[in-house]
Amino acid sequence: MFTMHVDDEVELSILEPRHAEPLFQLVDKNRDRLGVWLSFPAKTREKADSLAFIRRSLTRMADGNGFWAGILYKGELAGSTGFLYIDQEAGRTEIGYWLGDAFTGRGLVTKAVRKMVDYAFFELGLRKVNIQTSGGNGKSRAVPERLGFTKEGVLREYEYLNGSHHDRIVYGLLKEEWGKF
Hints:
The chain has helices at about 20-30, 30-35, 40-45, 45-60, 110-125, 140-145, and strands at about 5, 10-15, 65-75, 75-85, 90-100, 130-135, 150-160, 165-175. The protein is of the alpha+beta class and about 180 residues long. It has an eight-stranded mixed beta sheet, sandwiched between helices. The protein starts with a strand and ends in a 7-residue tail after the last strand.
């Protein structure tokens, strides 16, 4: 299946049904930490949930409306990144990402997102990439900031997780800005 070489240790690979078990295990192992900022861990209760997610992602890919790829570190599934949608008419997309705790601190997400931005601009011909993060998630916010995205706004109390509301920070990057930081 489709893979993108990032560097000697990191590769992005379209999630396939064969990834359902390792994907579920990674989510399950990191459920509490991921669940602070993301809603999907609470909905991922068994391998079948991961398989259903992968199948939806493959359908979206076939429809030209986004996809999710595994972030592989030295061949091991470390997390995931993807295009939440692709709006060809408007020329934009949004990138999401997450990483298992054992793989943090290596720059894997920054490398993966950099590759996804390149793909969006130079392979898909898009004009804009957005990233949205929880206001309180400093590690997630550091990724678009490190890559030169502009903070475009705050969606106040946008999401309700674990009994509290969270602001959402919106970052954007235009094609002509890429590489100017």
